[in-house]
Write a structure and sequence with these properties.
2 copies of one chain form a homodimer. Chain A is α/β, with parallel strands linked by helices. Chain A folds into 2 domains: 269 residues, Aldehyde Dehydrogenase, Chain A, domain 1 (3-Layer(aba) Sandwich); 176 residues, Aldehyde Dehydrogenase, Chain A, domain 2, CATH 3.40.309.10. Helices cover 39% and strands 17% of the residues of chain A. Chain A is built from 14 helices and 17 strands. In chain A, the strands form 3 sheets. Chain A has a 7-stranded mixed β-sheet with strand order 10-11-12-9-8-13-14, with helices on both faces. The first copy, chain A, has a 5-stranded mixed β-sheet with strand order 15-2-1-16-17, with no helix packed on it. The two termini of chain A are 42 Å apart. Chains A and B meet through helix 1, strand 1, strand 2, helix 7 and helix 14 of A and helix 1, strand 1, strand 2, helix 7 and helix 14 of B.
């Protein structure tokens, strides 16, 4: 394993990616599947070298980071499977209809890569949402060169991971410029404005993401900026659910909001709880098990302390468990706060602000109307969760939550995000800036655009569009699906 | 037929659409298919009333406008077929894997409507890209209420068409607020900033579209703005093609760039022609057949005159056919100008500006390198066209044009845009602002977002996601496609 790679300036990296773009676009799906597998194999092999660096820089536990490498290489291998499956190309063929009025030409459509992608790493997943994470995997799968902007919270890990990725790609035959790394906030700002870059992918804070989104949208040639920003992930617990299984729900909630020290974008940040059912006491009891854990870095520590200051100082907020004075520590003890649905409806901006770290806000509701007016104040979120008793009618809650979220859970907790064909990790603003996911097979759609060939000679058609379908791709022909 | 509908203020229309959104989203695909068919039937029935109003306001010929009504109702019926086909829902189901590490929940994904859409009509298709055009049809099909901003160029037609649409929708059972109409530039600006609006769809000028795109992107809650803006639709004619069939190519070109008085976004605006092959003379000859036709309105007349002034005054531009002094007339005679690929490469901004109206610019090239450096200066376009001789190798030209366009034609002319499953009407900026099309079946994708249900009880699942697949929708289950 090489130790590090030379980082480039943003214009250098973008120029190299721009030069590589037509070469990468011209590779076959099978070639790119092998690149992704080579990167996955190399990361698995380098795990013992990389994980200690990640522990040092992120303060996350070794077991979690080791598992995260597995998640990361699993993502790379999923996109190899997506490439071989080929349905993502959305091949549609309409044969000519010469006797139509006007005569209809032959049209053959498929998705093609958009070009170089700027990927902005997240702090909280040093592997899975970073240098070799899902954005990089899906962009490379699509056939787009990638320039990663390293996260300052794990710079050394980023350099070492980038070296592994670059070496594996080169070894697998990827063109020079397929992958690059830049460092620093200013480089990130320059990168998204470079004419060679065709889209951005970002996971991080609302303020940082919005600033880059504005740069991307404000370019002379605007480009899409696929950002995952902020999410409070509302949970609703019904009185019947508390009656049926309150203690295990309370301990499940504590486990979920303190997982990874509360540093997940899917952390349950607000929990609507029945005012009278005694659920608060059960949560306070379950908090006996909760342990303090170090946060990722000083910026997160400062942000958490500031967020708690704002929230706990609100006249409508009470402390249920934990100590507010502990919130400025490097490893703050988890906190549970409480308010009411009426207060939330009256002051959503203050009470429903995302607070990254080990805190959750219980929101007491009385009537159903009370609950619904509180839920109506919730902005777009990645997830929404309903805890009801077996057989309880949840259709009204489903109808209120569904328009606000990208993933709707019935039982369970939102902090696990399975990497599958069907996953959707996105949601209405401010959860994400687009109608596409950043996790799961369909994340590839962000980096593709349609191209339709009209009356093309067979000789210039990509194999995927040829009449005989030599590669056996799923397609729609004259209106009918063929698998 | 009712005469007109009451137009609303933008906030009124947006509020009505917002109130209707959950009701529209809850309708079945079959219900919405019937709405679209009811609108199509009503427009067909009202054709004799509407076309004369369109002729009066747009100055387009009756036969063309009558045909355009057919195109419009055909689009509405295509989206009814798209709804019944159901593949657009992109249903993906992954069953639970309880013994995975970590255990994998059951996930069921489908696309759901985003909410109210603001549709901005175009001047040049008073039916097909206007009140009941493709944007409206695809948004309603998706399950989104629509507020149309009427085009000032055909206000009376817009009101009358809107009355037909509103009456047909109401008759077919669509909720109040499913469809609304607003008028005026300021209403359009207010509309796109209304919190109830979730996306915009636009066909028109680069300056107007950019202004609305900036408003949409700059909102506190940014929304996608799907705009089709400007396109010069490069055509390349090889020397062998001229040798084989020069005269009919020349007459085809004249027919295409003067069709609809050159007022199509797919008009061939620039044509790369071999310097030595005598093609210019053939074009000049074919221009004998070209007739002057009135432009849509005074704004287009002024824009055309200004564009010709700019272009024809350029020291590197010569007049091939037509008269420059005629360019300010209400029905300007068609014009052919010429320059060289070297000049284009040196001053692309001036020479490759879109000029809406009956003009095309021949760009003479000598060597292949000369041609390629000229083509390299071409920005994103809706279409690119290659005219080569039978059997001639066009792979190099394909490789240069493909990254710049959304539809690549081999022979023929770009001004026909078939409404099919496979059509792509879009392209890199400034052709469009997104990776989605505005014409053809996949235009519906703009108004949909994924929603994934995790471990949901069968009772809350939409029929399309139920295990038994009662509606027989195409889907992917545990990684395998099922049609």
């Amino acid at each position: 394993m090489t130790d590090t790679i030379t980082t480039l300036t943003a214009p250098e990296a973008a120029a190299a990616a721009g030069a590589a773009a037509p070469l990468v676009a011209a590779t076959s799906r099978e070639e790119r599947a092998r690149w992704l597998e080579a990167v996955a194999d190399a990361l698995d092999a380098a795990k013992a070298d990389l994980v200690p660096v990640a522990v040092e820089e992120s303060h996350l536990p070794e077991a979690r980071l080791t598992g995260e490498v597995g998640r990361t290489t699993g993502q790379l291998r999923l996109f190899a499977a997506v490439l071989r499956d080929a349905a993502y190309l959305e091949v549609i063929i309409d044969h000519a209809v010469p006797d139509a009025t006007p005569p209809q030409p032959e049209l053959r459509r498929m998705l093609v890569p958009t070009g170089p992608v700027a990927v902005y790493s997240a702090s909280n997943f040093p592997f899975a949402f970073s240098v070799a994470g899902g954005d990089t995997a899906s962009a490379l799968a699509a056939g787009c060169p990638v320039v990663v902007k390293a996260h300052s919270g794990h710079l050394e890990l980023s350099r070492r991971t980038a070296a592994v990725v670059a070496e594996a790609l080169a070894g697998a035959g990827a063109p020079h410029g397929t992958f690059g790394l830049v460092e620093g906030t200013q480089a990130g700002r320059v990168l998204i404005q470079d004419p060679a870059i065709t889209s951005g992918a970002f996971t991080g804070s609302l303020s940082g993401g919005r600033a880059l989104f504005d740069l991307a949208s404000g370019r002379p040639t605007p480009i899409p900026f696929y950002a995952e920003l902020g999410s409070i992930n509302p949970v609703v617990v019904t009185a019947d659910a508390v009656a049926a299984d309150g203690a295990s729900l309370a301990s499940g909630l504590v486990g979920s909001f303190t997982l990874g020290a509360g540093q997940f974008c899917t952390k349950p940040g607000v929990v609507f709880v029945p005012a009278e059912a005694g659920f608060e006491d059960l949560v306070a009891e379950a908090m006996g098990e909760a342990k303090a854990a170090p946060l990722l870095n000083q910026r997160i520590v400062d942000g958490f302390g500031h967020g708690i200051d704002q929230l706990a100082a609100h006249p409508a907020v009470e402390l249920v468990a934990g100590s507010r004075s502990d919130a400025d520590a490097e490893a703050p003890a988890p906190l549970v706060l409480a308010t009411s649905a009426t207060e939330v409806a009256a002051d959503p901006e203050a009470l429903l602000a995302e607070c990254f770290g080990p805190v959750t806000l219980l929101i007491r509701y009385g009537s159903k109307g009370d609950l619904e007016s509180g839920l109506a104040a919730v902005q777009g979120s990645l997830t929404g969760t309903i805890h009801a008793a077996e057989g309880e009618d949840v259709s009204a809650l489903t109808a209120v939550l569904a328009p606000r979220v990208g993933r709707l859970l019935f039982g369970g907790w939102p902090t696990g995000v399975a990497v599958t064909w069907s996953q959707h990790h996105g949601g209405p603003w401010p959860a994400t800036t687009s109608v596409h996911t950043s996790v799961g097979a369909t994340a590839i759609r962000r980096f593709l655009r349609p191209l339709t060939y009209q009356d093309a000679p067979e000789s210039v058609l990509p194999d995927e569009l040829k009449e005989s379908n030599p590669l056996g791709v799923p397609r729609r022909v004259d209106g009918s699906l063929e698998v």
